[in-house]
Known about the structure:
Chain A contains twelve helices and no strands.
Amino acid sequence: MRAGRLYAAVAAGGFRRYATYRAATAAGIFTNTVFGLILAYTYVALWQERPGLGGYDQAQALTYVWVGQALLTVTSVGGGGFEEELIERIRTGDIAVDLYRPADLQLWWLAADAGRAAFQLLGRGVVPMVFGALVFDLALPTGPLPWLAFLVAVALGVVVSFAIRYLVALSAFWLLDGAGMAQLSWLAGLFFSGMLLPLNVFPGALGEIARALPWSALLQVPADVLLGTHTGLGLLNAYVFQAAWAVGLLGVGRLVQSAATRRVVVQGG
Amino acid sequence: MVGAPYGGLRGSLSAYRMIAAMWIRSTMAYRTSFAITAFVNFAVTAFDFLAILLMFAQVDRLGGYSLGEIALLYGCTSTSFGLADLAIGSMDRLGRRVRDGTLDALLVRPAPVLAQVAADRFALRRLGRVTQGVLVLAYAFAVLDISWTPAKALLIPVMLLSGAAIFGAVFVGGAAFQFVAQDASEVQNAFTYGGNTLLQYPPTVFAKDIVRSVTFVLPLAFVNWLPALYVLDRPYPLDLPHWTAFLPPLVAAGCCALAGAAWRVGLRSYRSTGS
């Protein structure tokens, strides 16, 4: 029970830390909204040319745009969050202090990142979504249940995103400078999450591969849950897909972590 | 700054060159790291064009424009924006310098602050963006069947340089805003990166009000829309006379003058924390 309280406190700290920068949040909302607006018009042009492309009608495609802007920072599609800090701690050796703490390294950072994601969903997700709904005809669900299902998918997406970025950060144990890995993972995330274009619009085999990779759990799956493409057993399948990647990647993270911590040699002074 | 070794325009440029050269030397100390970051810069900016290619895997026209025509729009704005980003893109770090007080160190040096801030952390990796812009532009020229006239041929380099100057003015204006806004530095991304994304698509895609505001309020349309549509013999969605396609140099000069004035106001309003 005490452990649960500890991680809850860490998560709350993560939430408060991001909530402190109000001007930065407002600026982020503005920028997300402008990008959403530009993307929305390009999607209108695309779906006018090919109605029903990727199984979406125009309202669904537009909803996808605004879900993307809302989740951009939440599931850290473009990177950002904790990994730069963890990389820096590994590089400077501060990680030795973290390993001394009576808390699990992976759970500690997961809790902090969950707190960050919760704030960014509220602070940066809601306003662009509302703006999008006011300016365009969106295919938003009316009942509370699809929204609840969406939140579960977002939560799972956050865990998958965390698990990927945790692995990226741990690479610093071997590479010392994790910036290159962080950037490569950022590229992969941007491309395979569906941030550029919905993955069901990707042609042929590329689309099938992209939909099977973990990054699709960050945006494509939550968006499809909100749009109601997954219902009943399909919804369960979507959750299982996300959860499997989450558990698998977290497990790999544990293995890498134990290998990495065996390597740590702290200079005695 | 009268009598200072780096006063005046020539002094500004030589101060800029010295600081930029210093950053290039420091970058080149880690060549692998430079190669990776330059590649990432190239790849991530090329993603924008990849998205357009993915769209054209499904359609033949977007907003009534072919892939080649959109490649021309894309290549022009990406090259212009890339040049501006390479030259002074690090200015969006000004808010950070204001917050942590390191701007004070720049104020006491005998060189214009604008040149120092512009060259600060000069990032050669940004050649990646310019490169992909030029490549897409070359592709556009290869596939398009443009009926060239001397005026059109002349307009291409004029458009690229004026566009870079217009985006440069937006960067400077954004930096001036950061004297006031500090934490809100992300706002300027909406106009720099956002503006670049907007201009990659033909104006027919967007609502008339958006086209009007980027023509008459923040004149980004002069970066590529007006001149490139003249080259393509396409009508601009707003009823503007043909000669407006040749206005980019004038618009750029006006933007730079305004941004310079905003910068001076911002710098004058700066009060150090004194710590």
